[in-house]
Design goal:
The complex is a heterodimer of chains A (243) and B (225). By secondary structure, chain A is an alpha+beta fold. In chain A, 35% of the residues lie in helices and 21% in strands. In chain A, the strands form three sheets. Chain A has a four-stranded antiparallel β-sheet with strand order 2-9-4-5, with no helix packed on it. A four-stranded mixed β-sheet of chain A has the order 3-8-7-6, with no helix packed on it. In chain A, strand 4 and strand 5 form a beta hairpin. The longest helix of chain A has 19 residues. Chain B has a seven-stranded mixed β-sheet with strand order 1-7-3-4-5-6-2. In chain B, strand 4, helix 3 and strand 5 form a beta-alpha-beta unit. Chain B folds into two domains: 110 residues; 91 residues, no CATH class. Chain B is α+β, with helices and mostly antiparallel strands and 225 residues long. The chains are: A alpha+beta (243), B alpha+beta (225). Chains A and B meet through helix 2, strand 3, helix 3, strand 7 and helix 8 of A and helix 1, strand 3, strand 4 and helix 5 of B.
Chain lengths: 243, 225
C-alpha cells in the first residue's frame, strides 16, 4: 500500500471531522495533539510499525550491552553482518553453564565469534560468546521509539489503512472523557463486535501475530471467551427471534 | 561489603510526569476548557493523588514485567551466605556467581523447604554455591548456598525502584511507548477512589488498558531472564 506523508495538522483536522467538525470545541488543540501522540504510541507498541537499527561497538570480553532509548524492543541482532540466533537466558544458563565467562575463541564448545543473543529485558541484551576484540559491530534491529509530532508541520509516513486505525484509536481516546454511552459504544464486546477499539486491536493483531497468541488480547479484541464457554448458544442480551 | 554502582549505562526516555499530569487533566475534564497546565480545576481529584497513583503504577509495571533491569555486583566473603540487597531493590530477576577461578554461572532460585529436603547440610556445610534463596530471611537480604569456602563475586540482576515522580518534569523509567498504559493505570486508581469522581465502568476499562501494557511487555520479552 502506498505510503503518504501526513502532518500533525492533517491528522488533527481528520480527527476533528470525526468528532463533529470544526464546531467541536469540546477538545483543545493541545488535547487532540496528545490523543494523536497516544494513538501513535499504542499503535507502535502493538505493531512494531516503526523500526530502526542501533549500532553498538563491541568491547572485548563483554557479554551485556545496553539498548538505548531509541529502541523500545530488540527484534534481531547481528555481529559484523552475521545474524545471531535468539536464545533464552534460561537455555544458556542450563545448556552452556559458564556462558558468561566464555569469550569467542576460547576453544572447546565455544565458537570463534559471537553466535547467540538473549534478551535480558527491554534495556539489556546479552551475547554469547563475548567478542574477543573491541570495536566490532553489533547491529540491533528493533522497534523504534514512536516519532514525536511536536509541531503542526511534523509528519509521519503511513499507509491509508494504518491511518484509519490510528484515527479510530484517536476517536476512542477522545471520547473517554465523555464517558457514558458515547464512550461505551467504542468498546469491544459480544454485543458490539464492530467497536472502534475492538477493530483497532484486531487490525493490530493482523500486523503482529504475537498478539493472537495471547488469550488476554484475544479477549480484549471482543471475544467473551468465558461467556461463550459457559453458554455458547446464547447472547448475554435477550433478542427477539427464534432463539 | 557493598554493591557496586550499576554495571550498565542507564537507558533514557523522554516522557515526563508533567506531561502525564496534563494528559490526565484532559481525560478527567480537569482542564476547565483550556490547555492543561499542571493543575486540576475541580476538587474531585488532586494532582498529588494522581502522582501517588502514577508512582505506584510505574513501580507495579516494572515489578510485574521486569521490563527494565539493573545489574550490580559485590565480592562475597568465604563461608558467609547472607548478603544485604541493594537499597533500591524491588525484585530479584537473576543471580550469578563468579568463583575464584573466574568461572561465572547462574544460581537457581530455591527456598528453605527445598533446601531442608534436598540439601539438608546447607546451614553448616560449605561448597561451590548452586542456588540462592530469599525465603525465611530478614527483609532485604539474599542467601547463596552453599556458602563458598573461597572469595567470589555475585552479580545481581533485579528490578530497581524507579525515579520518584514529583510533577516537576521527572522522566519516567519506562520506554515512551509504554507510558500510555502507566497513565491508564493511574486513572484506574483515581476513578475507583471514593467520592464524586468515582466511575467504576471507566476504572475497569483503565485497569484493562494497564493490563494490556503489562501483557504486551511480557510478550515482547519472551525468553528474557
Amino acid at each position: 500500500m502506498a505510503y503518504t506523508q501526513v502532518t500533525l495538522a492533517q491528522l488533527r483536522s481528520q480527527l476533528l471531522e470525526r468528532l463533529g467538525g470544526a464546531g467541536a470545541n469540546f477538545w483543545t488543540t493541545d488535547e487532540l495533539n496528545g490523543y494523536i501522540q497516544e494513538s501513535l504510541r499504542v499503535f507502535n507498541s502493538l505493531t512494531g510499525f516503526w523500526r530502526t537499527r542501533l549500532l553498538i561497538p563491541t568491547i572485548a570480553g563483554q557479554h551485556w550491552y545496553t539498548i538505548s532509548g531509541t529502541i523500545t524492543s530488540s527484534l534481531r541482532v547481528a555481529w559484523n553482518n552475521f545474524p545471531l540466533n535468539p536464545v533464552s537466558l534460561e537455555d544458556l544458563d542450563t545448556g552452556q553453564q559458564f556462558w558468561e565467562s566464555e569469550i569467542a575463541g576460547d576453544g572447546g564448545t565455544v565458537p570463534p565469534t559471537p553466535t547467540m543473543f538473549g534478551i535480558g529485558a527491554l534495556n539489556l541484551i546479552a551475547v554469547w560468546p563475548a567478542d574477543s576484540a573491541d570495536n566490532n559491530s553489533l547491529q540491533v534491529d528493533g522497534i523504534a521509539a514512536t516519532p514525536l509530532l511536536a509541531s503542526d508541520s511534523d509528519f509521519i509516513d503511513i499507509g491509508t489503512e494504518e491511518l484509519t486505525m490510528i484515527l479510530d484509536y484517536c476517536e476512542h481516546a477522545s471520547l473517554f472523557k465523555e464517558g457514558g454511552a458515547e464512550f461505551a459504544a467504542t468498546l469491544p464486546s459480544d454485543e458490539n463486535p464492530g467497536s472502534i477499539l475492538g477493530n483497532f486491536l484486531k487490525q493490530a493483531a493482523k500486523r503482529n501475530a504475537t498478539l493472537m497468541n495471547s488469550e488476554m488480547y484475544r479477549k480484549w479484541m471482543g471475544g467473551d471467551v468465558n461467556g461463550r464457554e459457559g453458554n455458547p448458544q446464547r447472547s448475554k442480551v435477550e433478542r427477539a427471534g427464534a432463539r | 561489603m557493598a554493591w557496586s554502582a550499576p554495571l550498565d549505562t542507564a537507558a533514557q526516555w523522554n516522557v515526563t510526569d508533567a506531561q502525564l499530569i496534563n494528559a490526565s487533566a484532559y481525560k478527567l475534564l480537569e482542564n476547565d476548557g483550556v490547555d492543561a497546565a499542571g493543575t486540576y480545576s475541580s476538587e474531585m481529584f488532586t494532582v498529588t493523588q494522581f502522582l501517588n497513583s502514577l508512582n505506584a503504577r510505574q513501580q507495579q509495571f516494572l515489578d510485574l514485567t521486569g521490563a527494565i533491569i539493573t545489574r550490580r555486583s559485590q565480592p562475597t566473603t568465604p563461608q558467609v551466605p547472607r548478603y544485604a540487597l541493594p537499597s533500591d531493590w524491588i525484585a530479584t530477576r537473576r543471580l550469578v556467581y563468579e568463583n575464584i577461578d573466574g568461572d561465572i554461572y547462574a544460581l537457581f532460585r530455591s527456598d528453605t523447604y527445598m533446601l531442608d529436603n534436598g540439601m539438608s547440610d546447607w546451614m553448616y556445610d560449605f561448597a561451590a554455591p548452586t542456588v540462592f534463596s530469599e525465603s525465611a530471611l530478614p527483609t532485604q537480604e539474599i542467601e547463596i548456598l552453599k556458602a563458598a569456602n573461597d572469595v567470589g563475586t555475585v552479580t545481581l540482576t533485579y528490578t530497581a525502584l524507579a525515579a520518584t515522580l514529583t510533577g516537576l518534569g521527572i522522566k519516567l523509567s519506562v520506554p515512551d511507548d509504554f507510558t500510555p498504559y502507566i497513565l491508564y493505570g493511574a486513572l484506574a486508581d483515581l476513578l475507583n477512589s471514593d467520592g464524586a469522581g468515582k466511575d467504576l465502568r471507566r476504572s475497569i476499562y483503565c485497569e484493562q488498558r494497564f493490563q494490556q501494557g503489562v501483557e504486551l511487555a511480557k510478550l515482547l520479552m519472551r525468553g528474557a531472564g
